[in-house]
Every structure is written in C-alpha cells, then in structure tokens.
C-alpha cells in the first residue's frame, strides 16, 4: 500500500450538513468525507498533529463567490500548506481531477500528471516543488521501513485516527440533505467492525 495513493474514482459527496454559519463547524463532516487526508497532496492526519495542520478549504474562493462561504459542497479538507498555496486561486476540482489514473507518485517523490487538469492542479499548488518532493520521498521511506520492520507503527501511520467523529451525534441547524451517509461514516463502520486497519 502506497502512502500517497489517490482515489480510483471521482468523489461523490457522502454527507450534506446544512446551515452552519461558520465553515469551521463543518470540520468533523469534512474529516470523514475526505478520509482524514488532504484532498490535494494526500498528507494524512496520522502523520501530523492535525490540529492546526489541516484546514477547512473553500474550493471556490470566498473572494469571488461569497455566497458559497458556508456551503458544504464548496468545502474540502486540505493541509494548511495546500490551502495557503491555493489561496484565492481557481483550480480544477481535485475530487474529479486527482485520481489514480491521472497522477503517479514516483519513488523519488515526484508526482507525474497524466491529464491536463491534473497538471494544472500540480502546477498551481506547487506539488512538484523540491520541498514537496522531499516530503513525499521521506514518507515513502518511513512507511516502507515501518512496513518491513515495525508493523504496529505501520498500522498506526497508515490507519485511521483514534478520534473518528461520531456524526450521528451532530445536528446541523438546517438538517442533512444526505442522511444515509452517516451510516457509512468511518465511525459507524468501525462500530460494525467493517473498517480496515490500514487504507
């Protein structure tokens, strides 16, 4: 299992909470929605102290789309680095453009785009900068060493966080347009013993 795997299929929203006045209130939903990873670079919460390292990110910038400020479907989960680099820019939708067939992460940390949309995202977010390549290279090596010599550490680094949000306890002010997604949340799947140790 590679540490920087991109999804095989375009992402379809599982959750639809509505009515929170502050985008930050959507954080537990977004953590679950995007599997505790940055939607752009695939950095994982398990590799960081995620408090302060992951952001609720506006896909369509608030500067040009103020009406989308607190719309769940305009929010993604991103590491602070990608969030700051994107800033107010417009980019292709990462949930549609950054897929397994569109990008390849090489052992040396380089990320290769196989589509124009993926290339635009990689260029805009500087995902092939020397720092980003070094970050990926370092984690590829760490994960490989853990897999070969420290299986408990490997499961910790490639597994889910301990504090999976219990979305069934949350009550969005204007309800949830996709209530069936709560039963497929990581917390609910763990309770049913359906969640794999690593992903």
Describe the structure.
Strand 3 (103-105) and strand 4 (111-113) form a beta hairpin. Helices cover 31% and strands 8% of the residues. The chain has helices at 27-33, 80-86, 94-97, 116-124, 130-149, 151-158, 186-191; strands spanning 54-58, 75-79, 103-105, 111-113. It is built from seven helices and four strands, in the order H-E-E-H-H-E-E-H-H-H-H. The model has no long low-confidence stretch (mean pLDDT 95). The radius of gyration is 17 Å and the shape is globular. By secondary structure, the protein is of the alpha+beta class. It has a two-stranded antiparallel sheet with strand order 1-2.
Strand order of the largest sheet: 1-2
The residue fraction in helices comes out at 25-40%
Average pLDDT metric: 95
Radius of gyration: 17 Å
Rough shape? globular
What ranges have pLDDT less than 50 throughout 5 or more consecutive residues? Answer: none
> Got a strand count?
4
* Residue share in β-strands: 5-15%
> What distance lies between the first and last C-alpha atoms, to the nearest angstrom?
8 Å
The computed structural class is alpha+beta
Helical segment count: 7
- Secondary-structure element order, as H and E? HEEHHEEHHHH
Largest sheet, in brief, is: 2 strands, antiparallel
